[in-house]
């Protein structure tokens, strides 16, 4: 990837898209890391491809839209045009495909040694091919719909990321094309035969091997599996809803989601280098030659999550990360959450600690007569959400329940629409945010009457109210009865409902009004200290130019800046006289690093739902809450210290834009494993 760095890096800036592709490469590196258990490496390969699919749909799609509608656009950090960035992405992708194919080949060999053989068209034996053909005839053919393309059978519209077999045929001296789409109910992975040896074959391999037999009487000249990726980037404004959808934003979003399948193609993947088929498809799809990519392995590796079932239980344990269950902090019990929080702040660090105490709190509030109001922002939810069940019960018990449901949570729109309807039917007040700002905040505001007075309980966190991801993402949570934060929480929901954007809160920093100014002001305090100043932050992404420039200013003033950035980092460290006081690390491991922490000097600290990205700061409603409890603040500082000492899963960003392993020194520290160990016995604080 080094050849492209001259265009993607303009010190002290790094292009956002380039940085994201480097992040996904670090995910792929985990699939190649022999220190990870084999089945976990298989999953990392699946995650890498899934990430790449979304990147192409969203980021490449948005750049193509930008080039079309804003041809004079220039990136404010690197000076790259939309076309420059598109060309850079398309030039980097072939290298990533090659590395993914090599990774799959290596994993197949290891899986075979471990007892599970994944068969592919180029390696399948004749005996297995016979069994595969029998399965294809009996179990796949009924679900396949072959079609010859001619004047009476016009070209179909290739659906987004659906697998197809396309063939160049000859029949009675006439050339034509044939298409077979993969049946929706066909399993991704098929077991062939019995016995001790486990032989599996992806259904896409079966379609490639035998799909041409669905065209009897025709000679197959060429064939290829293909997958088309379509643009997923769309705009949805309240003005559109007002004009066209009777002031109902949910109707607009439903229509936009349905339209995704008809948006323009942005990528074509094929498993053979057939030039005639490629030219035919390029012309039909309206794409360019460099938007076509060769796949030597599989198009999707979702089936990697099914491999567990083909190993004996004992072997499975050896091939996976050791099982764990998030602990309940000491002193926390079901049925007494309200009284506990009224006495002291409660801290939860997912997934090392379980989400259960927050669920218990909501379930208790649904029934407790002291509770009168519950308000919550929702961005992503789990299936069969206990959060929703508790809110429904609270509403049915006569509580005043208000839900701010974000309908523009990409790829979760349909789920959120369904939950919104369920909550409305139960009597909850549901609305969809504020004008054209996406509500990404994570806050629950609870109002109760206690001993004749009004009390407040407020939950503020860095991650979604999703029971599933709380077991996979590292997020921090504070549940507090602090009165000022409680009043801020009530005011926050009132302001969302009345479209009031400009409030200055007692303690909370809220974008787009006060988050940016508050964080910049905290940085300025450290800059004033010079060599005595320090800024320590953890986030998923850093791309906002004002924030980057302030960090550069801090470095030039002698402030020690330490940043943990999982994904996009648009700031280049180690540039003489600019960023030589800045250190940037990234951790990609068993759990998805998701918490955001902003710590300044030895005192001021916030946890937040927001990354330092322009979209979060200027175009979303986000919250940063101060950490007031000394024990919680000490714990978070200790967690940061452990993460910065990670020399197993951490990578450090170098001055040339590459990421490197952390030099070994002393104890080997995998920070996530360290937290599992520390929290295993129910510690409340570190």
Keyword list:
20 helices, eight-stranded mixed β-sheet, about 675 residues, alpha/beta
Summarize the structure.
The protein is of the alpha/beta class and 686 residues long.
Give the SSE map.
Blueprint lengths: L4 H4 E2 L2 E2 L1 H17 L5 H32 L12 H33 L1 E3 L7 H15 L4 E5 L13 E9 L2 E8 L7 E4 L5 E5 H8 L8 E12 L7 H7 L4 H11 L5 E6 L4 H11 L6 E3 L18 H7 L17 H7 L2 E5 L5 H12 L3 E8 L7 H11 L3 E6 L7 H13 L3 E3 L6 E2 L3 E8 L2 E9 L11 E8 L2 H16 L10 E3 L3 H15 L4 E6 L5 H12 L3 E6 L16 E6 L4 E2 L2 E5 L3 E5 L5 H5 L1 E7 L3 H15 L5 E4 L5 E3 L9 H9 L7
What is the first-to-last residue Cα distance?
41 Å
- What general outline do the C-alpha atoms trace? globular
Residues in β-strands, percent = 15-25%
Total of helices: 20
Mean pLDDT over all positions: 91
What does this entry look like structurally?
By secondary structure, this protein is of the alpha/beta class. Helix content is 38%, strand content 23%. It has 20 helices and 29 strands. Strands 16, 20, 21, 22, 23, 25, 26, 27, 28 and 29 form a ten-stranded mixed sheet that branches. Strands 12, 13, 14, 15, 17, 18, 19 and 24 form an eight-stranded mixed sheet that branches. Strand 17 (443-450) and strand 18 form a beta hairpin. Helix 3 (38-69) packs antiparallel against helix 4 and helix 7 packs across helix 8 (249-259). It is globular.
């Amino acid at each position: 990837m080094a050849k492209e760095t001259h265009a993607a890096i303009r010190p002290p800036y790094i292009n956002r898209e380039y940085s994201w592709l480097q992040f996904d490469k670090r995910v792929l590196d985990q699939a190649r890391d022999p220190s990870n258990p084999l089945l976990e490496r298989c999953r990392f390969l699946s995650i890498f491809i899934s990430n790449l699919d979304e990147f192409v749909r969203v980021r490449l799609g948005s750049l193509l839209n930008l080039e079309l509608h804003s041809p004079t656009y220039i990136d404010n950090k690197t000076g790259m045009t939309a076309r420059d960035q598109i060309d850079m992405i398309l030039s980097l992708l072939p290298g990533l495909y090659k590395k993914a194919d090599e990774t799959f080949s290596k994993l197949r060999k290891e899986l075979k040694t471990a007892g599970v053989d994944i068969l592919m068209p180029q390696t399948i034996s004749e005996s297995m091919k016979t069994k595969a053909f029998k399965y294809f005839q009996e179990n796949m053919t009924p679900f396949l719909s072959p079609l010859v393309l001619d004047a009476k059978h016009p070209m179909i519209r290739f659906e987004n990321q659906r697998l197809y077999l396309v063939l160049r045929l000859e029949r009675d001296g006439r050339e034509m094309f044939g298409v077979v789409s993969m049946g929706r109910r066909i399993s991704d992975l098929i077991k062939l035969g019995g016995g001790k040896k486990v032989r599996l074959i992806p259904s896409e391999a079966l379609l490639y091997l035998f799909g041409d037999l669905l065209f009897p009487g025709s000679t197959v000249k060429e064939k290829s599996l293909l997958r088309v990726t379509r643009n997923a980037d769309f705009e949805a404004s309240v003005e559109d809803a007002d004009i066209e959808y009777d002031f109902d934003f949910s109707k607009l979003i439903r229509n936009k989601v349905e339209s995704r399948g008809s948006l323009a193609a942005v990528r074509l993947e094929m498993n053979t280098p057939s030039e005639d088929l490629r030219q035919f498809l390029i012309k039909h799809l309206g794409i360019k030659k460099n938007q076509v990519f060769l796949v030597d392995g599989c198009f999707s590796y979702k089936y990697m999550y099914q491999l567990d079932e083909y190993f004996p239980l004992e072997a499975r344990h050896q091939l996976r990360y050791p099982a764990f269950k998030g602990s309940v902090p000491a002193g926390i019990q079901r049925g007494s959450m309200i009284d506990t929080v009224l006495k002291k702040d409660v801290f939860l660090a997912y997934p090392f600690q379980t989400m259960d105490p927050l669920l218990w709190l909501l379930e208790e509030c649904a029934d407790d007569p002291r509770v009168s109001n519950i308000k919550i922002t929702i961005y992503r939810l789990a299936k069969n959400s206990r959060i929703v069940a508790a809110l429904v019960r609270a509403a049915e018990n006569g509580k005043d329940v208000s839900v701010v449901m974000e309908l523009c949570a990409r790829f979760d729109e349909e789920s959120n629409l369904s939950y919104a309807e369920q909550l409305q039917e139960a009597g909850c007040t549901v609305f969809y945010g504020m004008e054209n700002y996406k509500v990404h905040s994570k806050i629950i505001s609870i109002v109760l009457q206690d001993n004749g007075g009004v009390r407040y309980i407020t939950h503020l966190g860095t991650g979604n109210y999703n029971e599933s991801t709380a077991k996979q993402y590292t997020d921090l949570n504070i549940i507090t009865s602090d009165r000022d934060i409680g009043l801020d929480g009530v005011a926050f929901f009132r302001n969302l409902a009345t479209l009031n954007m400009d409030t200055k809160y007692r303690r909370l920093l809220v974008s787009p009004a006060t988050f940016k100014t508050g964080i910049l002001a905290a940085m300025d305090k450290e800059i004033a200290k010079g060599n005595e100043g320090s800024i320590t932050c953890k986030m998923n992404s850093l791309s906002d130019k004002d924030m980057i420039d302030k960090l550069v200013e801090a470095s030039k003033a002698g402030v020690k800046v330490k940043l943990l950035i999982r994904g996009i980092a648009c700031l280049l460290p180690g540039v003489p006289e600019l960023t030589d006081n800045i250190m940037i690390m990234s951790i990609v491991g068993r759990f998805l690093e998701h918490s955001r922490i902003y710590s300044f000097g030895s005192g001021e600290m916030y946890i937040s739902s927001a990354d330092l990205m322009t979209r979060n700061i200027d175009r979303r409603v986000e919250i940063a809450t101060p950490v007031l409890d000394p024990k919680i603040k000490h714990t978070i500082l200790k967690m940061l210290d452990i993460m910065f000492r990670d020399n197993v899963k951490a990578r450090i960003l170098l001055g040339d834009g590459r990421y490197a392993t952390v030099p070994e020194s002393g104890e080997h520290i995998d920070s996530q494993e360290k937290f599992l160990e520390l929290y295993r016995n129910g510690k409340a604080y570190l």
